[in-house]
Amino acid sequence: MSNEPEIGKEMSKEEKLAGISTTSQNTVRVEQIAKGSSGTVLGVPSSISGNSMEVLENTRNSNNGKNTEPSKDLSEKYRLIALNTSDLIVFTTFDVDPIFTFVSPSHLKILGFEADDLLGKSGLDFIHEDDKQHIMTILLAYIDAKINGVLTADMVENTPKLDFRFRDKSGQWHFLHSTVDMVNDELLFISKDITEQKRMEHELHEKFDKLQKSELATLNIMEDLQNTIGALTIAETKIREKNQELQKINSELTSVREELTFLNRDLEKKVKERTADVEKLLKQKDEFIGQLGHDLKTPLTPLNILLPIVKEREQDPQLKELLEVIFKNVYYMKNLVIKTLALAELNSPNTQLFLQDIDLSMQIRDILDLQRALFEGKNIVLENNIPAETIVQVDLLQIRELFDNLISNAVKYSQESEVKITFDAKEMDDFIVISVKDTGIGLEPDQIKHVFDEFYKVDCSRHDLDSTGLGLSICKRIVEKHGGRIWVESQGKGKGSTFFFTLKPHKRTSGEENIMCKH
Amino acid sequence: MIITKTILVVDDNPDVITSLKTGLEDATRVYRILGAENGQKCLEMLKDNIIPDIILLDIMMPQMSGWEVFDRIKENPSWNTIPVIFLTARTDRIAKNAGSFLGEDYIEKPFEIVDLKNRIEKVFHNKASKKALVDK
């Protein structure tokens, strides 16, 4: 503290280049500006505060455990340090608006300035606008404390440290970290360029930000996931509930199905029982009809044989007339019994067809031979135009019955003394169409509609004992049982009728032929 | 007229036999009608060597049915050439078919006497032609 050496008196080469003289105790003034060989402009302070020296010297002495160096040597050492350190060393006036009095070469080098650019200029001009207030506040407090002598121990120990931006020659901002100290009447700024550090710090911040953001994003995703998991859990719960509901419904359905199965089985059983009942009844009906037929036909047989003979033998005309009435009624009853039974048999589901191949032409000849005998005394011409070898697959007895009925029908409904009946057959598509044409009384269109109805008689007004009204119904049933169709055509009253019906032709398969060959 | 053919009528209804006697025998005077009221009597008559030219056989008879009688006749070598025409009042197809396939012919009751006469004559005619063929 007591040593206050005059640095300015011992100037080096550099001092000569940039001569600085001390004008007052409080300020350092640049007296001479000169250019160095390197082109660097240097400002060197002519005086340095003894206090600082002392601090530095004390530090050094404590390090070495010696205190032998003289002040003159120290001054030279500090000057060399100031000129050669990589730290940026600046002296300014002790002022709120500090003016550069010394700028170290490193300062000029790093910031691209020349000595003239800075010396004598206000430091604040190079400070970033945003940092000015802060620096000024600190400096003001420091200066104030210094002037008023209220510098706290803490302030002595920890000289102000400033972070600010300093504009370089090119206008770029450099981050500087400075410690401020007072040396004599000047402010000493020892700074480090921490731009790179700041940049890295900034980068780190950015990276950190990014990390934070990504972390945030991750957190968001996590949250989303958690939400999703929550939603899934809820959905799962709902599904489980639905499942339980479904299982309940399913079990209900199962029981209903079981019930239905049971009912169905019961129903099937009942249907089977009923079917059996119906079949039994049908069988009983058929048996009853069979028995009834037998019992009716048996007494009719002698009546049918004897009555014509008795009638013929009777000489009394009155009695003969009465016998004729009896005969007519017996004849009608006989026909009614035969036809009713025939129709009942045809309508019974138990009736089966006994199909065989027959030569239609030959069968007609046989039928006509038998029928002719019944037509004795009547002028009936029968013409068979059915081509030879017209083979049909039919139930022979039923086909005979069919022709019997058609022939007797033709004979019955003819007014002329002469009746001509023509038989013909034509093969059409998959059927053989057989026609029975007569020269009888013919049919009106209205009669054509009903002629196959059961118990239909063309002349309703007449109490017709010749006709039962069942013959054509039987014909229809027979044809239908054979899978065919029957119809009648007539040009009208007095113009005759033609009955048509279809039958299936016999078709020989190769298998049948083989069997026939074996025989 | 000379009676040339003997007809045996087997029917449990005597009225049928009576009426056929009247209808065939009296009317034509060429047939002699014999009657049997059941299958047993028919077989007895055959055993007594009364061999008819034709048998008219009813199917539905008590004790012994027409089918059974038919079997007995066909079993016996001295009787099996006698032609049989079934008389039936049955309407079922089995009877009708069996009647037509087994016997020479069948006729459904109640029949016309003319129809029966035609069938009988046809059987005789066929038998005669067969015999003529065999004789040759």
Walk me through the structure.
The complex is a heterodimer of chains A (519) and B (136). Chain A is 54% helix and 17% strand. Chain A has 519 residues and is of the alpha+beta class. Among the domains of chain A are: 187 residues, PAS domain (Beta-Lactamase), CATH 3.30.450.20; 166 residues, Histidine kinase-like ATPase, C-terminal domain (Heat Shock Protein 90). In chain A, a hairpin with a 2-residue loop joins strand 11 and strand 12. By secondary structure, chain B is an alpha/beta fold. Chain B has a single domain, classed as Response regulator (Rossmann fold), CATH 3.40.50. A five-stranded parallel sheet of chain B has the order 2-1-3-4-5, sandwiched between helices. In chain B, helix 2 runs parallel beside helix 3. Chains A and B meet through helix 8, helix 9 and helix 10 of A and helix 1, helix 4 and helix 5 of B.
